[in-house]
Amino acid sequence: MIKPLTLMKIINERHTFVKNHPDALPFFKENFNKNVEAGTTLRVSFISPEGEDSTLEIAVQESDLPLFKNWADVLNQL
User: Fold this and answer.
1) Residue 12 is assigned to a structural domain of this protein
2) Residue 31 · residue 78 · CB < 8 Å
3) pLDDT tier, 71 (very low <50, low <70, confident <90, very high otherwise)
4) 3-state secondary structure 12-69
5) Which of 78, 76, 77 has its CA nearest to residue 33?
6) Is residue 48, in this structure, part of any structural domain at all?
7) What's the CA gap between 38 and 25, in Å, rounded?
8) Mean of pLDDT values over 16-33
9) Rounded to whole angstroms, how far apart are CA atoms 75 and 60?
10) Is residue 45 included in any domain, yes or no?
11) Among 16, 35, 48, 72, who pairs with 52 as Cys (CB 3.0-4.6 Å)?
12) Total domain count for the chain?
């Protein structure tokens, strides 16, 4: 369970994130709202300043869709 204070901090800190990365929120909103379906491949990479790469790739399953729907609902409120 997410603590309400933690959630409030995240919501407040999004302003700085959106200012620093204006394309990120629209990208996530668009993709979480219409591009996630069973069989979709989701790939997340983190690349350190030193070039160290860590990547995770998953195939979205039907049972994952309610979670993605909830994430889309949260993104639409930001």
Assistant:
1) no
2) no
3) confident
4) HHHHHHHHHCCCHHHHHHHHHHHCCCCCCEEEEEEECCCCCEEEEEEECCHHHHHHHH
5) 76
6) yes
7) 22
8) 90
9) 19
10) yes
11) 48
12) 1
- And the tokens for 37? 């379906």
Tokens 């930001």, located at residue: 78
Specify if 67 maps to a domain.
yes
The residue with tokens 């909103």 is 29
Of 76 and 63, more confident: 63
End-to-end CA distance of the chain: 20
Closest C-alpha among 40, 38, 43, 67 to residue 55: 43
Long-range contacts of 12-16 (CB under 8 A, 24+ apart): 14/78
Look up the domain containing 44 and give its range.
22-76
Say whether pTM exceeds 0.85: no
Q: Residue 22: what pLDDT? A: 95
**Amino acid residing at 13:** E
